[in-house]
Design a protein that fits this description.
The protein has 185 residues and is α+β, with helices and mostly antiparallel strands. The protein has two domains: 78 residues, Integrase, DNA-binding domain (Double Stranded RNA Binding Domain, 2-Layer Sandwich), CATH 3.30.160.390; 96 residues, Tyrosine recombinase, N-terminal domain (DNA polymerase, domain 1, Orthogonal Bundle), CATH 1.10.150. Helices cover 48% and strands 15% of the residues. It is built from six helices and four strands, in the order ββββαααααα. Strands 1-2-3-4 form a four-stranded antiparallel sheet. Helix 3 runs antiparallel to helix 4, helix 3 packs across helix 6 and helix 4 crosses helix 6. It is elongated, with a radius of gyration of 22 Å. The chain starts with 10 loop residues before the first strand and ends in an 18-residue tail after the last helix.
Length: 185
Amino acid sequence: MVSKTKRDKLYKVNDRDGLYVAVTAAGAVSFRYNYSLNRRQETITFGRYGVGGITLAEAREQLGDAKKMVAAGKSPAKEKARVKDAETFGAWAEKWLRGYQMADSTRDMRRSVYERELKPKFSNQKLVEITHEDLRALTDAIVERGAPATAVHVREIVMQVFRWATERGQKVENPAELVRPSCFC
């Protein structure tokens, strides 16, 4: 039987302040941090190093945020998983269109605006990924093509979908609150 060398399995290389990189046998490198919360050991993986991944500076910044969360009694790993598993704007929009009380004609009009204007831009994005700048750019483009009333409807749909989601436990800022319909003239 041949004993495994250190490079035949996952190994760690320490950085500082508890941050380390985990290197797999295949050579993949990811930034991690182990911490204790409520007498339990947990690990958060910040991301992979390399092309399409994060830098050491970004990992150190995320480490600082994670340490603040641990100090506040919150689990950074669980929060990361919650955000990762969060549903998309499209999923929340569909739930809102099905569940929100409105007249059938209003629902039909809002679905049409959603399908035509919002679905192509936002349906695959998570709620936390949509900013007021994104919404402003979309409404500005709609106004520029001569449809300011449609821009108002787009803002209203986004406002309502985000309210629907936050009423059901999503902790996200509503980008529509920073986009005023009075600017659509």
